């Protein structure tokens, strides 16, 4: 999708600090972390929001959760706990309209961690 920040990161036009990559997903560090561990998990396929996920994408969304488990283990937060957040739409704070999840951990998290997409990259 033209002018999509995350599509540009997937295409390598914008650099990112990658944690994990395969044919379907990219995981990279948030440039303004809201926790000691704060990475973004995105599918390489452009889907604007969770509301646009179709039945053909359900298996991919399930696989995204497997990737989240793996990355949490690799980043050392699986045992102590982590938060997995998807913002959907403007009232949620979604600013980058490419479906993604924030994985946060590495500390005891408060009730709400700031995960506005304005600092994603």
Automatic annotation (TrEMBL):
Q: Which residues are named in the active-site annotation?
A: 100 (tele-amp-histidine intermediate)
Sequence motif Histidine triad motif, residues = 98-102
Single GO molecular function: catalytic activity
Q: Which residues form the HIT domain?
A: 5-114
The positions making up the signal sequence are none
Q: Which SUPFAM superfamilies match?
A: HIT-like
Write the protein's name: Histidine triad nucleotide-binding protein
One Pfam family assigned to this protein is HIT
Highest taxon in the source lineage:
Bacteria
The record ties this protein, via PROSITE patterns, to: HIT_2
């Amino acid at each position: 999708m033209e002018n999509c920040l995350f599509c540009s990161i997937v295409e390598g036009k914008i650099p990112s600090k990658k944690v994990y990559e395969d044919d379907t997903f990219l995981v990279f560090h948030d440039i303004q972390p809201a926790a000691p561990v704060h990475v973004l998990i995105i599918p390489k396929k452009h889907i604007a929001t969770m509301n646009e996920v179709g039945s053909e994408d359900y298996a991919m969304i399930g696989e995204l959760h497997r990737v989240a488990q793996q990355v949490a283990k690799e980043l050392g937060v699986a045992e102590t706990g982590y938060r997995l957040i998807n913002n959907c739409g403007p009232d949620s704070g979604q600013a980058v309209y490419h479906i993604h999840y924030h994985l946060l951990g590495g500390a005891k998290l408060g009730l709400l961690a700031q995960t506005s997409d304005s600092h994603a990259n």
